[in-house]
Amino acid sequence: MYGKAFAPEYQGALTALSVNSSLPDVLAAATEQLAAARRAGSPLETARAGLAAAEAYRRLGRTEEAESAWKDSYRTARSAGDAGAMAWALWSGGTLARQCGRLPLARRLLGLAADLGERGGDVVARGYSLAGMAETGRIQGDYEAVRRLHEQLLAEARRRGEARHTVWALEGLAQIHRNTGDLDSAHRLFAEAAAIAADAEDRRGHAWALRGLADVVSVRDGDADQALALLAEAERSCRTMNLRSALAYNHKMQGNVRYRAGRFAEARDSYAQAWEEFRAMNEPRGEALARLGLAKSRAHLGRDADKTAAELDELAETMERMGLRHALEMVRRARAELGPAGAARPLEVAP
Fold first, then answer.
1. Predicted local distance difference test score (pLDDT) of residue 349
2. Most buried residue among 24, 177, 212, 236 by CB atoms closer than 10 A?
């Protein structure tokens, strides 16, 4: 059995905040508490409020402010000599680094956070930091190396009955299965994650699980309408909580679904929307993936083949520089689909 989802990154005087609190509300509460903690001369409460502010800034796409906030939180936690608070600040910094495409830095910060969490006896900080390392490896396409870590973290989360972390681990494993071609297992895991998140009232986790389900329904079943309905449901949660990154990835997935269905003009518009959203929040991985979909859609709509080929070459360099193995394979497949000169070929239709 799982309890209601909670947000361990909201600590001290901010523990009353819900996992579903809107990010502007979180930021307002964190800013107010940060000022109060500084006036009271409490380094630990200052570090905790700074952590909540950093996470709100990050999820709102305000990356420069997030960078400053997590570093301030870490320095204050260090001055207080609290290893757990230091671990949480480094976890936030590592998560931000991954969001901004700085994957080696993300792994280093998250590794330090996991070590501090263990030394400080904060099992949740350790678990979240190891989860961040696993997610970073998964994004890089290092599936075999991180599959076991995902499974280990899932088992730990199930034992603790922690819904939010269970949902995360299920979604991570589901994504690995999806990317390695086991669509039935991916569907099963995404569906379980969606059910647990719904019961635990974890809207963020539920929105991500629905996005994964929509992807599998589109690829495995060829059901674009059902996939878009799932994405529309997820989009409502993203907008309610102002989850800018999740919303942008939702729009990119809408582009994927429409592209697979041969609805290229609609796909182009979805990818263009996602691309602008990713650019606005400085999320280069999402930006590159949306741009890839946009290039493919434009090719099918008659764009000059040489321009498409040049853009694919540029995207391949970007993916390789960021260490995104799976995304680099996607560029290779795009070249095969569109031809060496970037001219669109008819999509294969399953019998």
1. 31
2. 212
